[in-house]
Each structure stands twice: as C-alpha cells, then as structure tokens.
Design goal:
47% helix, binds iron/sulfur cluster, two-stranded antiparallel ribbon, mainly alpha, 265 residues, 10 helices, globular, disordered C terminus
Length: 265
C-alpha cells in the first residue's frame, strides 16, 4: 500500500487525478492510497445524498456492492479456501451498518424473516465477547449456502480464509485459532468499510455496525424503517439493538467478524 507520506508533490497530484478511475474499476488493495479511499467515500456520499431524497438505500448499496465485487474479482489469483457450501464463518457475530440491514430486510421472504426471529431469540443474550464461544448459524444460511448472496453485507463479501479446516475448528469447535486471512482482503475490507463510514458520517447518518440478527429483527418489525432512518429518525438506534464495539487498542482493528489474522497472502 502506498500512502501519501512517500509521495512527492507531483506524485500526490497524479494519485489524486487517477483516484476516480481506480474507484470506478473497483479498488485494487495492492495499489491503495488515501486519495482512492477519499474518492470512494465521496462517491458513496453522493449516492447517500440521493438516497435521502428518494428514501431508498438501494442505489447506494448496489453501487457499493458492485465495486466490492469488482475488487474481489481482481483478487482471483490470491488462493483462498472459501467456496460455495463452505459456511463456517457464518456461525459467529455478523455485523452490518444500518443501510446494509435496511437493504437486506426488504429482500427477505416471510420464511427468512421467521428464521431471523428464531435466531435472534437464541443469540440475543450473547455479547460480542461471548458470541464466538456460542456459535449459531446465520438465519440466512440455507443448506450451507448464503440465501442472500447478491445482497449480503460488506463484511460477508470480503470475508476470506486460506484454510477451511482452521475455520471449521475455530468457528465451530472453538479452538481459538487465528483465521489465516489474506492481507489484501483485509486491506480491501478496511478501505471499503472506512469509506462507507466516512460517507455515512458526512451525510449525517449513523455509521456504527450492528449485530445482524438484532438489527434485521428491528428493521423487519419497524414500519417504514428505511424512510425513518434516512430522515434522521432513530429506528435503528433503539437501546435494545446490539452494536459491534468500536475497535480499541486491545482489540484487532476490525469491527465485524471476530478473530481475524493477517499472516498470509
Ligand atoms: S449473510 Fe450470508 S454470508 Fe453473511 S453470515 Fe449470513 S449466510 Fe453467511
């Protein structure tokens, strides 16, 4: 990654000029700089402005997810163990921002909604710290496949592991092993989540991450949740909603999945 400290004035000017093109093609984590993250945030912010007018997060999320998918496609040469039917990481605390939850909630069938309710009843008593030791399948998992694959949250899209057996042991047998996550996936995930967070803050909207089951349950049970949230309402800020704690110096700088590591790729 090349951040601006190593750039002279001309290089900075060039990097700034090239940032829109880098964002349009889906960012390349191996060639990331602060201008690209800033441009990405600027683009998302523009979409959020339109979302506030139309009372729909759809365009913003479709834009964000299309860019993430391009980034993942560009990392196809990085070997990962993840594949269709491998779902070990879908058993732990999953986090998403409010627009991702609202986007997903609109697309759930009543059957999936009922499964969210059942899962929330089981997972609601576990804190972020307790949840890794109390795995429970994501209610959107069907026969070990994500039933909302096209609409899954940012952190699900950029989850990866170099070793499925370590995932199986760690996520379901609770062996406390670090998941060998390719570094470029971590860099990409942090770039997209930082840009989304900055854009949400800039648009005057909540940028915190929520635990998926509790947030989906609330969104499904709140009439006009999307309109209320985009109008600055408090529908997703109720006290009962479980937030993913902010990173601290004692916790890895990742707000969503637990136990990442960066020792491969
Ligand atoms: S939303 Fe899909 S990918 Fe994410 S945890 Fe649930 S089943 Fe897994």
């Amino acid at each position: 990654m090349s951040w601006d400290e190593g750039m002279d004035r001309n290089q900075r000017r060039l990097a700034k000029k090239q940032a829109p093109k880098a964002v349009a093609g889906g960012i390349d984590p191996s060639a990331l700089n602060e201008f690209i993250v800033a441009e990405l945030a600027r683009q998302i912010h523009g979409h959020l402005g339109r979302a506030k007018q139309s009372f729909s997060v759809d365009e913003t999320l479709e834009y964000l997810f299309s860019k993430i998918d391009l980034t993942v496609k560009g990392m196809a040469d990085i070997p990962i163990a993840c594949g269709r039917g491998c779902s070990h990481c879908c058993n732990i605390w999953v986090s998403a921002t409010a627009p991702e939850v609202l986007f997903l909630a609109k697309r759930l069938s009543s059957r999936a909604g009922a499964r969210v309710r059942e899962a929330h009843e089981i997972t609601k008593s576990f804190s972020h710290e307790q949840r890794p030791y109390n795995p429970h399948p994501c209610p959107l998992l069907e026969a070990d496949k994500c039933s909302v694959y096209q609409d899954r949250p940012l952190f699900c899209r950029l989850a990866s592991s170099a070793d499925a057996e370590i995932c199986r042991r760690s996520y379901t047998n609770l062996t406390d092993e670090n998941i060998p996550t390719p570094m470029m996936y971590i860099v990409g995930r942090d770039a997209y989540s930082t840009a989304l967070s900055v854009a949400l803050k800039g648009a005057g909207l909540s940028h915190v991450c929520y635990e998926l089951n509790s947030a989906l349950q609330l969104a499904l049970n709140t009439p006009d949740a999307e309109r209320a949230w985009l109008s600055g309402g408090t529908s997703l800020r109720q006290h009962s909603l479980k937030r993913t704690p902010s990173p601290s110096k004692n916790r890895p700088a990742t707000p969503c999945f637990m136990r990442w590591s960066s020792n491969s790729g």
